[in-house]
Design goal:
The protein is α/β, with parallel strands linked by helices. It folds into two domains: 273 residues, Divalent-metal-dependent TIM barrel enzymes (TIM Barrel); 45 residues, no CATH class. 43% of the residues lie in helices and 11% in strands. It has 13 helices and eight strands. It has an eight-stranded parallel beta barrel with strand order 1-2-3-4-5-6-7-8, surrounded by five helices. Helix 2 packs across helix 4. It is globular, with a radius of gyration of 31 Å.
Length: 340
């Protein structure tokens, strides 16, 4: 089986514990990466500072750091000073934390802006991310102006910036109407930059919107109805070889102590990845069909032609002699294997 790096998304390792304690729990559970949301970034900047957080990450063995998602990065009427502050904090954190990627959301407002109108802003943001050493990845959502991963892939490719990529989220992709075949055909291999795994029910639960399902019904990989091993193989077919993001959001998961929840999430995800590895693997060798050689000290059945003692009706008195008779008949020489 392959070695797999796992990345805990911000929801998977979120909690009320101090951030240092949570970071240690992520590393102890076997994750090699994590994502930090803007709430955590603002809190860290105002308290312990990014340099101290980087030391915590190093101590926990965290090598993959993903930041975001960033909202309203394009020119629009409702863009505010807070949005610009988020952008500044995210880019500052990318430098200090040696981030691997920064994530940007598509437009979820109604009515949404045309994707074509976002292209220049995307190129600008991709250039800024490149200057701080991080890759920019786009996260499409079914309720956004880029509702499918195929359309988002076309957007990234058309923008043409070499530092721009696509995040393939299982929940968003499959609930957006994509299939494994459409992903394989419609997502450009050059665009795919990140993957997030979660499982789900066959259909969105009654009374839930897609957005509500994404926030509270993302099950452990392998615990739902989706073909996640097939999803993993599809991403690999497109050339993905990075850390596998893990995003679990259910009330039961949040109620579980963080250390236990993270270990469970890591184990469940590795089982899915191992199942994907096993697909088309060479079959195990067949068991031998020839009989094994008989040892010289093994017992063999008595010759069917040999006379066997007849048991009397009253066996109690004759039992010691009968047992000895059977033993003599079955005994073999330990050196030659012939009847003694």
């Amino acid at each position: 089986m392959r070695e797999h790096d796992l990345l805990a998304t911000s929801w998977t390792w979120g909690g009320d514990e101090p951030i240092g304690e949570r970071v240690r729990a992520v590393g102890a559970a076997g994750f090699a990466g994590l994502s930090l949301g803007l709430d955590d970034l603002h809190e860290v900047r105002a308290t312990i500072g990014f340099a101290e957080l980087r030391r915590m990450l190093d101590g926990a063995g965290i090598v993959w750091v993903q930041l975001g998602p960033l909202d309203r990065w394009w020119a629009c009427a409702d863009r505010s000073d807070d949005d610009d502050a988020d952008r500044g904090v995210l880019l500052e954190a990318a430098v200090m934390l040696q981030a691997w990627q920064v994530v940007a959301r598509a437009d979820t407002a109604l009515p949404g802006v045309s994707p074509a109108a976002m292209r220049e802003d995307w190129v600008e943001l991709a250039g800024q991310a490149a200057k701080v050493g991080a890759q920019l990845v786009l996260e499409p959502e079914p309720w956004s102006n880029l509702p499918t991963v195929e359309r988002a892939s076309r957007f990234v490719v058309a923008a043409g910036h070499p530092n721009g990529g696509l995040l393939l989220d299982a929940m968003h992709a499959l609930r957006g109407g994509s299939t494994l075949a459409s992903i394989r055909e419609g997502v450009a291999a050059t665009a795919l930059a990140a993957v997030e795994l979660s499982d789900g029910l066959l259909r969105t639960p009654a009374g839930m919107t897609l957005a509500e399902e994404a926030r509270s019904a993302r099950y452990l990989p392998g615990a739902g109805a989706w073909d996640l091993p097939g999803f993993v193989r599809t991403a690999r077919d497109l050339g993905f070889d990075g850390p596998w993001g893990v995003e679990v959001r259910t009330p039961g998961y949040r109620a579980t102590p963080l250390a236990d929840a993270l270990r469970t999430a890591a184990a469940a995800t590795r089982a899915v990845l191992d199942a994907a590895d096993a697909f088309d693997a060479p079959a195990a060798p067949a068991m031998p069909s020839t009989p094994a050689p008989t040892s010289a000290v093994d017992y063999e059945p008595v010759d069917q032609g040999a006379a066997r003692p007849v048991l009397p009706r009253d066996r109690s008195a004759a039992l010691p002699g009968i047992v000895e008779t059977f033993r003599a008949a079955d005994r073999r020489d330990a050196d030659t294997g012939t009847p003694a």
